[in-house]
């Protein structure tokens, strides 16, 4: 039997690459600013912005966003996500354009989620 070249199948983990990618993706996902929409009730919705760098003043950004888009908003502290800006209405395109024009984030680092 030693003369034969027998290959014994080894255990194959189909998720090994995905798990290895998650460690890098977790660090890489910090680079993106996520702009999402959440449906409330009926036609009402919330726009959330997460992933801004901590060096920025969230309250000042919120103040400018509220003035620019004539909507109300707040900064919410989430245990998993950190600080999240919430705005009333569907402001996804407006917020992404504002963040790029203000020089806060580059366009390629914004991910817009929803519908």
Helix-strand layout with pairing:
Blueprint: H1 16-28, E1 33-39, E2 45-50, H2 58-69, E3 73-78, E4 82-88, H3 92-101, E5 110-112
Parallel strand pairs: 1-5
Antiparallel strand pairs: 1-2, 2-4, 3-4
Question: Could you describe the 3D structure shown?
Answer:
This protein has 115 residues and is an alpha+beta fold. The protein has a single domain, classed as SUI1-like domain (Translation Initiation Factor Eif1, 2-Layer Sandwich), CATH 3.30.780. 30% of the residues lie in helices and 25% in strands. It has 3 helices and 5 strands. Strands 3-4-2-1-5 form a 5-stranded mixed beta sheet, covered by helices on one side. A hairpin with a 5-residue loop joins β1 and β2. The longest helix is centred in the first third of the chain and has 13 residues. The radius of gyration is 21 Å and the shape is elongated. The termini are far apart. About 6% of the residues have low confidence.
Short description, anyone?
The chain is an alpha+beta fold.
Please tally the helical runs, counting DSSP H or I stretches of 4 or more residues: 3
Look at the helices and sheets and give the structural class.
alpha+beta
Order of helix and strand elements from N to C terminus? HEEHEEHE
CATH H-level superfamily: SUI1-like domain
Distance between the termini: 62 Å
CATH class: Alpha Beta
Helix content, binned percent: 25-40%
**Uncertain regions spanning at least 5 consecutive residues:** 23-29
Q: Biggest sheet, in brief?
A: 5 strands, mixed
CATH topology: Translation Initiation Factor Eif1
Strands in their spatial order, largest beta sheet: 3-4-2-1-5
Q: From the 3D coordinates, which CATH architecture would you assign? A: 2-Layer Sandwich
Approximate strand percentage: 25-35%
Alpha-carbon Rg, integer:
21 Å
Integer tally of domains: 1
Q: Would you report the number of β strands?
A: 5
Shape: elongated
Average pLDDT across residues? 84
């Amino acid at each position: 039997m030693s003369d034969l070249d027998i290959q014994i199948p080894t255990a194959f983990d189909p998720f090994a690459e995905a798990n290895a990618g998650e460690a890098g993706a977790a660090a890489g996902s910090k680079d993106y600013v996520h702009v999402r929409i959440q449906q409330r009730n009926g036609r009402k919705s919330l726009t959330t912005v997460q992933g801004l760098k901590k060096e920025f003043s969230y309250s000042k950004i919120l103040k400018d966003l509220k003035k620019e888009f004539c909507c109300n908003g707040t900064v919410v502290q989430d245990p998993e996500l950190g600080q999240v800006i919430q705005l009333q209405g569907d402001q996804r395109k407006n917020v992404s354009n504002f963040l790029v024009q203000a020089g806060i984030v580059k366009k390629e680092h914004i991910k817009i989620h929803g519908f």
